[in-house]
Amino acid sequence: MNLTSFSRASAFEGQVTRQVWSSHIRSSN
């Protein structure tokens, strides 16, 4: 695994986590 694909995967993971958190916060309020 090279560094480029790793950083791309982590960036995608962070984006998914942010979307999940924003939808979770929006539904809880």
Count every beta strand, where a strand is a DSSP E run of 2 or more residues. Answer: 0
> Mean pLDDT, nearest integer?
89
Number of helices: 1
Radius of gyration: 13 Å
Low-pLDDT sequence parts:
none
Strand content: under 5%
Q: What series of H and E elements makes up the topology? A: H
Strand count, sense and barrel status of the largest sheet are: none
Termini, distance in Å?
41 Å
Which shape, going by the Cα principal axes? rod-shaped
* Secondary structure category: mainly alpha
Tell me what you see in this structure.
With 29 residues, the chain is an all-alpha fold. Helices cover 90% and strands 0% of the residues. The chain contains one helix and no strands. It is rod-shaped and about 40 Å long. The chain starts with a helix and ends with a helix. The relative contact order is 0.12. The mean pLDDT is 89.
Name a few traits of the molecule.
29 residues, mainly alpha, 1 helix, 90% helix, rod-shaped
In brief:
The protein has 29 residues and is an all-alpha fold.
